[in-house]
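Email to the structure team, subject: Enoyl-CoA hydratase family protein model.

Hi all, the expression group asked for a predicted structure before they design truncation constructs. Nothing fancy, just the tokens so they can compare against earlier work. One-line instruction: predict Enoyl-CoA hydratase family protein, return tokens.
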Amino acid sequence: MMQLVRYNLDGAVARLVLDSPHNHNALSTALVTQLRQGLADAAASGARAVVLGHTGRTFCAGADLSEASSSEGAGPADLAVDRAREMTHVLRSILELPVPVIGAIDGNVRAGGMGLVGACDIVVAGPASTFALTEARIGVAPSIISLTLLPKLDARAAGRYFVTGEKFGADEAARIGLITVATDDVPGAVAALAAETAKGSPQGLAASKALTTAAILEGFDRHAEDLTQLSARLFVSDEAREGMMAFLEKRPPRWVS
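Reply from the structure team: attached below.
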């Protein structure tokens, strides 16, 4: 299997790097599996901070639409549920990790990638960062990732960006609560935050993080299964198939009114 997530332990800081540039770090089954394993390795290592970064100009493009669109004829509804659960599980893995996770972003973030951003405890973004929730444009919705985004985002901003699909930059992302710090020096800011975080004790960090994620995890317990089923239904719908094919073929979708 190709290595799509690189792991390195540097003292008290574990670094996970999304490294799948051929598909813009899309959330393929392989990448999600390796990311969850990397998080588990970081927890087992005794690290007191995890930095989640990326190679290339894109942090994460969201769902791997080539996988999603190729499932037709092979039990697509069941496959869609399985893939939706993969997303639920990786977001929960970040939230439940007893180690703070710092997102280090200086590139594009789209759709499901926004859910990863929402799950991180601290997020630093640089001037090359752009963000967008583009699901509605391909006939689906930010259903599962709403579990990590809605608790963080300003309500008016969520109401706007969930439906418009507009792009916005790091300064706007900080203003609406999506990220923690907008900066011209992502490596420097991340290094400083990781060093400060690593001064905490394992017990103190785990208990302190748990206070901030408890309400979000309660939302998972109440809504994750329903949102997983919703996501799966949307992804196998006729509208979504048209939306995904239009995206892959780089043409406007032909919606049936």
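Strands lie at 5-10, 13-18, 49-54, 58-60, 101-105, 108-110, 122-125, 130-132, 168-169, 181-182. DSSP finds ten helices and ten strands in the chain. Ping us if the truncation boundaries need rechecking.
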